[in-house]
Amino acid sequence: MLRDIYDNLLFDLDGTLTDSKPGLVNAIEFAVRKMGLAPLPQAVVEKFLGPPLFGSFEKHCGMDRETARIAVSYFREYYADRGIFENEPYEGIPELLGRLKAAGKRLFVATSKPTVSALQVCAHFGIDGYFAEILGSEMDGSIIEKSDIVGILISRHALGRRESLMIGDRENDIVGGSGNGLDTVAVGYGYGSEEELRHSNATYYAKTISDLGRLLLS
């Protein structure tokens, strides 16, 4: 049973614990306008949800790193003022976190969102107390990859790789976990497409939050 295998559970934030899509989309569209670019198709905007912003602006807008830094600064301008709270926990997530904590699991957040923003979001929604640490990227772009963030948590908390599980909704979450030797859960209720999640080769799959609860607590 998974309940007896994994003591340490690492969660992505956006698209896994909270539905932050409205605020993220608005902030991306604000940044694109400020950069003087034509509006992006909605399908392209949605590809920004989850992976690091620097790489997304480079990949989907043809920017170099310095231009992407400017775009990210515009994103943060909107997000810090309004977008951060255009967001809410998925229904059932606070209750699931409580059940996992009561079962003796150590919970962590590993997100591409800057740590300061992740802390603010989790505190705002009253879920910060469930986690041993909430860790994200650095504002200066020095640490942005999910694999690096997961690796820091493993090292800092001496997490056994065979007893730890990475849970997320995008391929970069799964790759970030598996690249550090962790088993992984791809969740189907977030922002990753079914095709993307199949391609990620996650160890487990949970289509809904109820499925995730059964998987982790059975």
How would you describe what is shown here?
By secondary structure, this protein is α/β, with parallel strands linked by helices. It has 2 domains: 2-19 and 89-217, 3-Layer(aba) Sandwich (Rossmann fold), CATH 3.40.50; 21-85, DNA polymerase, domain 1 (Orthogonal Bundle), CATH 1.10.150. The protein has 11 helices and 8 strands. The protein has helices spanning 2-5, 21-34, 42-45, 53-61, 65-81, 93-102, 115-124, 146-156, 171-178, 194-199, 209-217, and strands at residues 8-11, 18-19, 88-89, 106-114, 131-137, 164-168, 183-187, 204-206. Strands 5-4-1-6-7-8 form a 6-stranded parallel sheet, sandwiched between helices. The longest helix has 17 residues, at 65-81. It is globular and about 55 Å long. The mean pLDDT is 95. Its EC number is 3.1.3.5. It is an enzyme of class 3 (hydrolase). InterPro entries: HAD-like_hydrolase_sf, HAD-like_sf, HAD_2, HAD_sf, PGP-like_dom2. Keywords: Hydrolase. One of its GO terms (cellular component) is cytosol.
